[in-house]
Write a structure and sequence with these properties.
By secondary structure, the chain is an alpha/beta fold. It has 27 helices and 20 strands. About 40% of the residues lie in helices and about 15% in strands. The strands form five sheets. Strands 6-5-4-7-10 form a five-stranded mixed sheet.
Length: about 700
């Protein structure tokens, strides 16, 4: 293509345009930029610039692309003003302006003259442009330019408050921007986000920032925005609620992630984000999102569903990212099969891991599987990691957590995990200075969190979960004084060094740290309606068999779910034919008597009487608790109640149970009997002692 030297400049200026002006696509920013770069490199005077720009303007009008050309020139003016890439350094040094001299048609039919004044970066330049263009208006025969400009400014201010979607697009011009948005009346370039005010530029942010994605939560329908901002080496992204982004008192929280926002700029930045998100609602990509892991309403399972994003608390991002596939499935599978064959406990832990996602599908209740033992090297933590490796990264602190957390933290983590197992290591980390555990089994076993109020006067959504909790520690997770409901929900398995849970702990850790996450995904993706129906039938059959034994219904429910999950996992994942049996799982279940808090309280008080037998003898001249006559121990009621409470039992509940079982002598509606001790008549709890002949061995001392 030949080069033409337009006759518009004096002969000393070599202004080479590579194409005829009629051949340029004035909607193509790069094409127009190439031509104007030649102009800014060679033009020496403002007259030369005006003349060349006038010719380009006429060509754009003839091609009916004046609107596009005008917007392109506006973008280039800001680019020249900033001069971020030094292409226009000589042009700026000469004090030249990229413009043409306006004629009557421009004043009467376009906003270009008024917009040029309004968009000047400083008050001085704005005033200078106003005088210059007012003179051009007078020369062109247009009267009252300044009064019309005042009306134009008022209109623009009104549009800032009520944006008009039909305004010409004022595009964002951030470097390497993720997408181009309509910026309305904001200027968005490498120097940040700002707009022209009465006293010059008003900055919302001193670096590029923009919304790049809208996230709609499929559970709550809450909308969040993914915000991208350019700092340092490139673009960063964070996700935040609109309640945070559009509130000047909350948006300052973005400063913690590196965004330049202060108490002074917070309101302006909130206005910008709200305005730009509103006028670009259909332009900003929208994506479904979820703030938890587990089953979705449409039957999918997060995070295995394509095109769904995580919009939850950033503190759970590490766990969410840990639920993924890594390494080779077959390598993990062989290691897991070896552990299942070598240890029933390891098989139970793997079964519990798979059972977690069946709880809501079968209609069962959350439950605990707790491995405990005072000896080191039994493989408890490795077994927990093996169970965690079904779903993701088993490294402690990635997916599995420790007991070094608050009860609220445990509750929120359970709600986030949703349906996959909650794995918690080292129960002893939850104990206080007196050795008592601060962990509450009830809180997680119920599957429902605490209802909490909010500042608006309402209540937040109550968190829920339906999962299995896998834990380890040096002692049982529930004390002897715990309520029956707590004891009922826990399958306690004692681990001894002579019978390791995982024999090759080092080798197993080496494998599962590099290969994990495949089995869980395969398992849930295989759970179609037919499989779920099959699981429900298996569960009912196992539950019927277990309920006929000595265990409680809740223990039978948990055990039946473990047996069902183990059988399904072997069919879908392992393919060994090795299934847990009701006899194997029954060895870990509690009897009805051991679950009963009344039975445990009665046994404790019988032991307490035996340990303090010397204080029930009349010849004792020191402290006297009561007396023993025949089969009954008469205990001063104050001493009895205090002993119960010290052991963690509720004295009123225990007395009510003892009365219903006929194990105390009463007088009318009272739970006490009067008894004369050392000549003093006192109210006593007359408790029948256990009969030694009804117990094997020396479990209880015969007192009489």
């Amino acid at each position: 293509m030949g080069h033409a030297v337009p006759p518009i400049l004096h002969k000393e200026v070599i202004f080479i345009i590579t194409e005829n002006l009629q051949d340029i696509d004035y909607a193509d920013f790069e094409a127009v930029l190439d031509v104007i770069l030649s102009l800014t490199d060679n033009a020496k005077t403002q007259t030369e610039v005006n003349t060349a720009m006038q010719q380009m303007k006429q060509a754009a009008i003839q091609k009916q692309q004046m609107h596009e050309f005008s917007n392109t020139v506006r973008r280039l003016r800001r680019l020249i003003e900033e001069d971020t890439n030094f292409q226009f350094i000589d042009f700026n040094a000469a004090g030249l302006v990229l413009r043409w001299q306006y004629d009557l048609t421009d004043f009467q039919n376009t906003e270009d003259p008024f917009r040029e004044v309004f968009e000047q970066p400083t008050a001085f330049k704005q005033k200078r442009a106003l005088e210059l263009i007012a003179a051009e208006a007078q020369q062109a025969g247009y009267k009252g330019f300044k009064s019309m400009y005042t009306a134009y400014v008022q209109e623009r201010r009104a549009m800032n408050e009520q944006p008009n979607a039909n305004l010409p697009v004022h595009a964002t011009e951030f470097p390497e921007q993720p997408l181009e948005l309509d910026a309305g009346d904001w200027i968005c370039d490498a120097s940040g986000v700002y707009r022209t005010g009465i006293n010059g530029f008003e900055y919302a942010c001193h670096h590029p920032i923009m919304p790049v994605k809208r996230l709609v939560n499929i559970d709550t329908w809450e909308e969040k925005l993914e915000i991208a901002f350019y700092r340092g080496r490139g673009w960063r992204k964070i996700t935040a609620s609109k309640r945070t982004l559009f509130d000047s008192s909350k948006i300052i929280e973005l400063a913690a992630y590196g965004a330049a926002v202060t108490s002074k700029t917070a309101k302006t930045l909130a206005d910008f984000l709200c305005h730009v998100e509103g006028i670009n609602y259909d332009r900003i990509p929208q994506q479904d999102s979820i703030s938890r892991i587990g089953w979705m309403q449409d039957g999918g399972f997060s995070p295995y569903v394509q095109d769904i994003a995580f919009d939850g608390d950033a503190s759970y991002g590490e766990i969410f990212r840990s639920i993924r596939q890594e390494g080779d499935f077959e390598t993990w599978k062989q290691a897991a099969i070896r552990c299942r064959r070598e240890s029933v406990t390891a098989q139970v832990m793997l079964a519990a891991s798979f059972a977690s996602v069946l709880i809501s599908r079968i209609g069962a209740l959350p439950f605990f599987v707790h491995l405990w033992g005072g000896e080191s090297g039994t493989g408890k933590s490795v077994a927990l990691m093996l169970a965690a490796s079904v779903w993701g990264n088993p490294e402690i602190g990635k997916y599995p957590q420790t007991f070094n957390a608050t009860q609220v933290g445990h509750e929120k983590t359970a709600a986030f995990l949703g349906n996959i197992p909650m794995c918690i290591d080292e129960l002893q980390l939850s104990k206080d200075s007196h050795g008592r555990s601060k962990f509450d089994v009830y809180q997680l076993a119920q599957g429902v969190g605490r209802t909490r109020g909010n500042k608006a006067g309402g209540v937040d959504k109550t968190p829920t979960w339906s999962l299995c909790i896998l834990t380890t520690g040096e002692s049982p997770i529930v004390s002897e004084s715990a309520g029956a409901g707590a004891v009922n929900r826990v399958i306690d398995i004692e681990c001894r060094a002579s019978e390791k849970v995982i024999r090759d702990g080092i080798g197993t850790c080496r494998v599962i740290r590099s290969h994990y996450g495949h089995a869980g995904r395969r398992f849930v993706e295989s759970l179609n309606e037919e499989r779920i129906t099959q699981a429900q039938e298996m569960y009912q059959q196992y539950f019927g068999e277990l309920a006929q034994g000595e265990t409680t219904e809740k223990q039978a429910m948990a055990a039946a779910l473990l047996l069902t999950a183990d059988a399904l996992a072997d069919t879908l994942i392992f393919g060994t034919g090795l299934h847990l049996t009701t006899a194997q799982i029954s060895a870990f279940l509690k009897s009805k008597a051991s679950v009963s808090v009344g039975e445990r309280g009665y046994s404790y008080m019988c032991d307490w009487v035996a340990m303090n037998a010397n204080k029930f003898q009349s010849e004792n001249k020191n402290e006297i608790y009561g007396t023993i006559e025949g089969d009954y121990a008469y205990v001063n009621q104050s001493v009895f109640r205090s002993a119960c409470r010290d052991a963690g039992f509720d004295d009123r509940a225990l007395l009510s149970w003892l009365k219903s079982e006929g194990l105390i002598l009463t007088r009318g509606r009272n739970n006490t009997r009067g008894k004369r001790i050392n000549g003093v008549n006192v109210e006593c709890i007359a408790m029948k002692m256990k009969d030694c002949d009804s117990y094997d061995g020396d479990e209880y001392n015969c007192l009489l």
